[in-house]
């Protein structure tokens, strides 16, 4: 049988049959899969470098850092700790059961579906898959059709390196994903936008399948008047314009007082130039917008404020300059949706109270960032706002800490993963009591 022509129902049945044999449960099988995946990334990394250049104009250094290196680190961290994470955990028993022993153990769930987006099309497919395999599951992975070159590379390489009866790649767009979602899975892990997140959750309801939704939204940055603005600008520009702003935890907009905003504007312009030179279009380090639809959507946001730097694009090559907009009205189009592109609006507020109110008036973000020297301000932001993660002084970096859970809250998602949190997500923690 040619797996390429397999129907979703047959794929799931084939993987479920493998799971039922118990083959995926021993820790040796799991670690072998992770080692093979690591070998794939090191031996065939060049294929991904090429596909990610084609899909998103990513530079080889960026691919190494944010796609291959990131994933290899997650594998190594998991290999180092897996046996310890899986250890049954004893629980004290109450007096009326004296002599009995009680513990919890992690059971794999069965067959897991991972649906990935296009912006980090390798990392965001492989990292959940690492967790699902480490927890002893069979996995169907569905790459994004909007990053077609990377989808093709993953579909070609994964069956070559991993147990093909326990890991299946299904390529395709809406019809293929819809067909997959009609099947019964034991967990669905979806990364992407909230509209499709709702479709995924509605499909999961039919089979009472638990879901993890890794969504997005507008991640604000509060810049305090005491912050060192050259450092702020350098770190903000690096976090915002990575992958041309197409990062789920990218700083979406800046909240600061009018005086700090005025000083931050030229600092941001200098930071962009330091990163990409005076003509970012000619920089090999600067990425491209994924497709024309997103290019047009982003171009329409450019007149939401006064252009500090950037502001122009080239539709034919999907180049959109790293752009900073000042004097942005909170009701303007750029503030009404997640930007997901290289446009950084600056919105002014009077003080910290107004900033906290501004944040809390809106959907709970995937990340909140703050640059401040004040411990009291840090504590207030941590205590008085809710977000998937909180980054103090450095955007994006929290998700590179494998010992921190990565996920959203409210509109930015539900559930989390990375490191041992992936084991929690892709396992059932079973309660066991043995009478004395
Ligand atoms: P996308 O368009 O690639 O969609 C994601 C997946 O959903 C794809 O595999 C696609 O085939 C599938 N899909 C699309 N429409 C569908 C439908 N009608 N039914 C079933 N499946 C469907 O990616 P996207 O949603 O444009 O990604 C961008 C969004 O994802 C942003 O909001 C971003 O913030 C968010 N995101 C979140 C994270 C995170 O880790 N929390 C990471 C990356 C992106």
UniProtKB/TrEMBL annotation:
The keyword Oxidoreductase applies. The active site is at residue 214. It holds the Pfam family Aldedh. CDD domains: ALDH_F3-13-14_CALDH-like (cd07087). Residues 11-432 form the Aldehyde dehydrogenase domain. PROSITE patterns: ALDEHYDE_DEHYDR_CYS (PS00070), ALDEHYDE_DEHYDR_GLU (PS00687). Transmembrane segments: none annotated. InterPro entries: Ald_DH/histidinol_DH, Ald_DH_C, Ald_DH_CS_CYS, Ald_DH_CS_GLU, Ald_DH_N, Aldehyde_DH_dom, Aldehyde_DH_NAD(P). Keywords: Oxidoreductase. Belongs to the aldehyde dehydrogenase family. PANTHER family: ALDEHYDE DEHYDROGENASE, ALDEHYDE DEHYDROGENASE TYPE III, ISOFORM Q. This is Aldehyde dehydrogenase. It comes from Streptomyces melanogenes. The lineage of its organism: Bacteria, Bacillati, Actinomycetota, Actinomycetes, Kitasatosporales.
């Amino acid at each position: 049988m040619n797996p390429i022509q397999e129907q979703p129902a047959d794929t799931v049945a084939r993987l479920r049959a493998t799971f039922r044999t118990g083959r995926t449960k021993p820790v040796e099988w799991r670690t072998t899969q992770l080692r093979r995946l690591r070998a794939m990334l090191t031996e065939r990394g060049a294929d991904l470098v090429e596909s990610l250049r084609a899909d998103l104009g990513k530079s080889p250094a960026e691919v190494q850092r944010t796609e291959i290196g990131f994933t290899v680190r997650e594998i190594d961290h998991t290999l180092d700790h897996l046996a310890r994470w899986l250890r049954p955990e004893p629980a004290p028993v109450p007096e009326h059961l004296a002599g009995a022993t009680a513990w919890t153990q992690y059971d794999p769930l069965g067959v897991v579906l991972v649906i990935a987006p296009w912006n980090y099309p390798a990392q965001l497919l492989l990292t959940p898959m690492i967790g699902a395999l480490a927890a002893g599951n069979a996995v169907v992975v569905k790459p994004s059709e909007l990053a077609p070159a990377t989808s093709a590379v993953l579909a070609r390489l994964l069956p070559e390196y991993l147990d093909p009866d326990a890991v299946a790649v299904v390529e395709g767009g809406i019809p293929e994903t819809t067909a997959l979602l009609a099947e019964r899975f034991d967990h669905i892990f979806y990364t992407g936008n909230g509209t499709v997140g709702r479709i995924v959750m509605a499909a999961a309801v039919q089979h009472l399948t638990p879901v993890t939704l890794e969504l997005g939204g507008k991640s604000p940055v509060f810049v305090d008047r005491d912050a060192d603005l050259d450092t702020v600008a350098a770190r903000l520009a690096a976090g915002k314009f990575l992958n041309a702003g197409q990062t789920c935890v990218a700083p979406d907009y800046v909240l600061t007082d009018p005086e700090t905003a005025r000083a931050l504007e030229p600092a941001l312009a200098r930071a962009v130039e330091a990163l990409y030179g005076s003509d970012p279009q000619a920089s090999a380090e600067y990425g491209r917008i994924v497709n024309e639809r997103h290019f047009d959507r982003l171009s329409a946001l450019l007149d939401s404020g006064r252009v500090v730097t950037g502001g122009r694009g080239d539709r034919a090559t999907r180049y959109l300059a790293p752009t900073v907009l000042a004097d942005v009205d909170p009701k303007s189009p750029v503030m009404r949706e997640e930007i997901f592109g290289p446009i950084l609006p600056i919105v002014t507020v009077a003080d910290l109270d107004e900033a906290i109110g501004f944040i809390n008036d809106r959907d709970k973000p995937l990340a909140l960032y703050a640059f401040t020297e004040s411990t009291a301000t840090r504590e207030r932001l941590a205590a008085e706002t809710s977000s998937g993660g909180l980054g103090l002084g450095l955007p994006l970096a929290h998700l590179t800490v494998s010992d921190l859970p990565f996920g959203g809250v409210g509109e930015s998602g539900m559930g989390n993963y990375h490191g041992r949190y992936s084991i929690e997500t892709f396992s059932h923690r079973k309660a066991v009591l043995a009478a004395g």
